[in-house]
Amino acid sequence: MELKLLRTFLSVVELRHFGRAAEALHLSQPALSKQVGVLEASLGAKLFERGRHGAELTRFGEIFLPDAQALVHDADEILARAREAASGKRGHLRVGICLSVLTIAPRIIADFRQQYPGIAIALSDLSSAEQTRRLVAGKLDVGFMRVPSVEGLSSLRVIDENLALALPPSLERVRLPADFDKLNEMGFLALRRARGPGLAAQVDGWCREQGFVPNVTQQADDVQSVLASVAAGVGVAFVPSGAQHLLRDATVLPLRGKCAKWRVGLVWPDARSNPVTSRFVSFVRAALKGG
Known about the structure:
The chain is built from ten helices and eleven strands. It has helices spanning about 5-15, 20-25, 30-45, 60-85, 105-115, 130-135, 180-185, 195-210, 225-230, 275-290, and strands at about 50, 55, 90-95, 120-125, 140-145, 155-165, 190, 215-220, 235-240, 250-255, 260-270.
């Protein structure tokens, strides 16, 4: 059943007149009458009684009217959703996030969800290396992460991150490199290399630059456990400076040096055409510019 015929039928019902309905639909009256006739033939019953005062629904027409209205309404809803999906206002977005942007990204994502409620967002806390793998494999749409040098990925700068030392309350003042031996006596806590290969490489580079070999006495599978152990006085740890907001009873000391800095950005695949991703990238770009 053609939607055009149903819309013609509903127009006649609303205006109760073939001539006025034809004018509203920009049709000639014979053309409109023909469309109504085709619909009646397909249904096998008459829809209107025509008289001097216009067009009145037959008993069959009254019965058919609610179904016709429902069909047209559903078709309009489907079309609207399809247009929203094509323009990136509806769909799904898989977002990766890292520790360094926990004070920035959640607010941006919340604002985006409020503006585009038709987009369902799945958020995953992943290392930059894992985000890179998933982006390349098509299992992630965008990621807030250490900007990788991987072909096929585009990026937008979010922040410049800095390597830092997380110190327990017992260490009020630390002078580097003079106090390296004191730190090694206490011992270093570290995220397992497999869980944070980017951070591990950053620490390796900085330590080589300083000619220092840290004495790692304990490892953990997540940064939160490392930070909790530092706060408890178990040891010290190399962390991104963005971890400072997670530490209440410890000090974060930013480190200097060429190997102490890296860029964190929003990263996405540039080969796949995804209107939802494009809309999110544009939103983040505007949010960062406005912020």
